[in-house]
Specification:
Blueprint lengths: L1 H78 L1
Keywords: Coiled coil
């Protein structure tokens, strides 16, 4: 009887394994869609950061140029 019980338990486990594989197979398209959606959001966020970085770099360059001109004009005025 123990052998038969073990056999039945094993059959149940195999059935559960197959059911689990089927469930994974069914869930895979949803999982892939979620991953793709997350990647698209990440790409959009990366583009926003790139644009923001470009804007900050440009503003920094403009500020430094303005400060250089201001320093030069103060030097000229004080030595002039």
């Amino acid at each position: 009887m123990i052998g038969r019980s073990e056999s039945m338990v094993r059959e149940l486990q195999i059935g559960q394994d197959r059911a689990g594989q089927d469930r994974v197979s069914q869930d895979m398209p949803e999982l892939l869609a979620r991953i793709e959606s997350a990647l698209q959001r990440a790409e959009v966020a990366a583009e926003r950061l790139r644009q923001r970085h470009r804007g900050l770099r440009s503003a920094t360059r403009d500020t430094l140029t303005h400060l250089d001109r201001l320093i030069d004009s103060e030097r000229t005025r004080s030595h002039g």
